Amino acid sequence: MRCPFCNTDSDKVINSRPTDEGITIRRRRECLNCKKRYTTFEKVDNIPLRVIKKDKSREIFDKDKILKGLLKACEKRPVSTSELENLIYEIEMQVLNSMEREINSQIIGELIMEKLKIMDEVSYVRFASVYRQFKDIQTFMKEIEKLSKEK
Question: What is the pLDDT of residues 24-38, one digit of tens each?
Answer without folding.
Answer: 899 999 999 999 999
